[in-house]
């Protein structure tokens, strides 16, 4: 399905496209389309030629690699207003697998035309380089968290990140993706993930009801996330 003006306004909210002029964004949209995937459906596989990059409108996309022993490692989760696979247009191949965790709608953009537009517009290139540099810094911070923080810290940080803006105490959050996926994304073994959750529950910091979690003590969780050593 072709993109509408309403879609274009949604696309403009994404960091990658925020610096584009109306004319530039309209050209990108004219070579884009709306695509829907069912839960578990593969979007692309590692090593495949890259012809499109994407922006999530609704749903959740899992980006992952498979090790030689068949173990899946989740590298990132892309939710609404998050782009993915944009860097692959420069290498020509997707470096990861991408699968929809739940029914998802995404905007798909043509890599060839986007590259042509950058080739013809040096100013646009610099603006996009700034956006991608900001994304790179975010990834570096994420690597720091994965390598320098304990599993307990990483899980506490993740839970706090799910708290709705403006909620000050005892929020209920819903885990939007399976616990196994969260554990993989945080670099935690599933059994360790379960042990940490059980410890947080026994310490009175959280209360669990299936995929809904009541954060009973935000202060204690923040202290846990901030502690070192």
Topology summary:
Blueprint: H1 5-12, H2 22-30, E1 32-37, E2 42-44, E3 52-58, E4 61-66, E5 72-78, E6 83-84, H3 88-91, E7 97-100, E8 104-110, H4 111-119, H5 122-148, H6 151-161, E9 172-174, H7 179-185, H8 190-202, E10 206-209, E11 212-215, H9 218-226
Antiparallel strand pairs: 1-8, 2-7, 3-6, 3-8, 4-5, 4-7, 9-11, 10-11
Helix pairs in contact: 6-9
Polypeptide structure, described:
This protein has 229 residues and is an alpha+beta fold. It has 2 domains: 5-147, Jelly Rolls, CATH 2.60.120.10; 149-226, Arc Repressor Mutant, subunit A (Orthogonal Bundle), CATH 1.10.10.10. Helices cover 42% and strands 23% of the residues. The chain contains 9 helices and 11 strands. The strands form 3 sheets. Strands 1-8-3-6 form a 4-stranded antiparallel β-sheet. The chain has a 4-stranded antiparallel β-sheet with strand order 2-7-4-5. The protein has a 3-stranded antiparallel β-sheet with strand order 9-11-10. Helix 6 (151-161) crosses helix 9 (218-226). The N and C termini lie far apart (52 Å).
